[in-house]
Design brief:
- This protein has two domains: 30 residues, no CATH class; 54 residues.
- 51% of the residues lie in helices and 12% in strands.
- The chain is built from two helices and three strands, in the order E-E-E-H-H.
- The longest helix has 24 residues.
- 2% of the residues are buried.
């Protein structure tokens, strides 16, 4: 099963693909459960991945910056897996 290429667009509680002609619904969100926590987790994962790719692309390999980025990424991954404490 392949993922849906971006960019995605939010339309109320629906997430649509980026098609301008006939957009398709990718998923429908609900307010059930911990939806705010889930949204924050997705944002944290995206932020960590973005920081990591920017860091690698820039080629500025200061070890303390990499350590901070990796710690953020590891924390978000642990939270997603439910192994954070």
């Amino acid at each position: 099963m392949a993922d849906t290429p971006g960019p995605w667009k939010a339309d109320g509680l629906e997430v649509m693909d980026g098609s301008d002609i006939l957009p398709e619904k990718i998923c429908e969100l609900s307010y059930a459960g911990d939806w705010k926590a889930n949204a924050r987790l997705i944002a944290d994962l995206l932020e960590a991945l973005t920081e990591l790719t920017n860091y690698v692309t820039a080629g500025d390999y200061r070890s303390n910056r990499l350590t901070d980025i990796l710690n953020s990424a590891r924390a978000a991954i642990a939270k997603a897996k439910g192994t954070d404490q």
